[in-house]
Amino acid sequence: MINPFKKTYSQDEIEFFKFLANIKLFEKLSYDEMALFKPFFYLRYYTMDEVVFFRNDPSNALYVIKSGKISLAMDIKDSFEHLITLKAGYAFGENALLQNTFRVYTTIVVSDKAEIYVIPKVNFEEILESRTRIKARMMESLAEHYNELNTNLVKTYKSSYGFFNLAQIFKK
């Protein structure tokens, strides 16, 4: 039986939801849940060498790459050390989901141009405050992401024969 009250989506909306479904933070959400975020995604255009945000900036938005490439880099003294290049279909700045956080790396556009969806933290928080199931699923995805980063950190430490002091990351 067809439910006449069920929300239907345009082909463009469905394509956007399919795109979001491939992003770690949104992968556990239904289309109806993703639809709550859609009005708050703003598409921004960037050019080569443009900085999206700097390390230590307040974490005020989440970013999702629609097209182009972004370098995550650490500024060490007077230069940047490249960490990874992200391409379309990846999110960054995910610590915006956490309270009172600051950026831990700098992001720089490394393609001729980039299209990046930006969702301000304030809009994200509005949705998560009133929808605990969505918040739980997204926080679970964030925890899985951070667990993967921690696992990679330990593997790197082991393979580098303790080149750095791993205990330093556990300081309070």
Could you explain how this protein is built, in words?
It is built from four helices and eight strands, in the order ααββββββββαα. The protein is α+β, with helices and mostly antiparallel strands. The longest helix has 28 residues, at 132-159. Strand 4 (69-76) and strand 5 form a beta hairpin. The relative contact order is 0.18. It has a single domain (11-165), classed as Jelly Rolls (Sandwich), CATH 2.60.120.10. The mean pLDDT is 87.
Q: Summary?
A:
With 172 residues, this protein is an alpha+beta fold. Helices cover 33% and strands 27% of the residues. The relative contact order is 0.18.
The H-and-E topology, N to C, reads as: HHEEEEEEEEHH
Q: Largest beta sheet: what is the strand line-up?
A: 1-8-3-6
The appropriate CATH architecture is Sandwich
Tell me about the biggest sheet? Answer: 4 strands, antiparallel
Radius of gyration: 18 Å
> Kindly state the mean pLDDT as a whole number?
87
- Domain count: the total is 1
Determine the fraction of residues in helical runs and give it as a percent range. 25-40%
- By CATH, the superfamily comes out as Jelly Rolls
| Shape assignment | globular
Our measurement of the CA-to-CA distance between the termini, rounded to an integer number of angstroms, reads 57 Å
